[in-house]
User: Which sequence fits this backbone?
């Protein structure tokens, strides 16, 4: 079974940092694209960053570019999201998933940024 276990969220003040982790299992981590997504209540889930596990080519959505960094540890089947200079509008539940995404999303991890 596919498992996507995101962790590392929490409450942080604006300008602060968090590092999210997502341990994945149930599918091969080699030579895939994997990404971070987020969803604010009442809004659609949006993709914000992705990376190719083999070449480490990255892509960032404009609102997080320069502040967030996605990376992987292929030996641990884990994808990370370093989030710096956090803003209140970054508040959301964060998920990781393969690209294209599985229908299963896991529970995600809540990030709350206070102003």
Assistant:
């Amino acid at each position: 079974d596919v498992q996507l276990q995101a962790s590392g969220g929490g409450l942080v003040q604006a300008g602060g940092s968090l590092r999210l982790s997502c341990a994945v299992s149930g599918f091969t981590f080699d030579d895939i694209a994997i990404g971070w997504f987020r969803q604010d209540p009442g809004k659609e889930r949006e993709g914000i960053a992705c990376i190719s596990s083999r070449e480490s080519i990255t892509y960032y959505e404009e609102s997080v570019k320069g502040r967030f960094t996605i990376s992987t540890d292929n030996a641990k089947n884990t994808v990370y999201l370093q989030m710096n200079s956090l803003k209140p509008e970054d508040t959301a539940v964060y998920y990781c998933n393969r690209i294209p995404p599985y229908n299963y999303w896991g529970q995600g991890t809540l990030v709350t940024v206070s102003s």
User: Anything to note?
Assistant: The chain has a mean pLDDT of 95. The two ends are 39 Å apart (CA to CA). Residues 34 and 62 are 18 Å apart (CA to CA). DSSP finds no helices and ten strands in the chain.
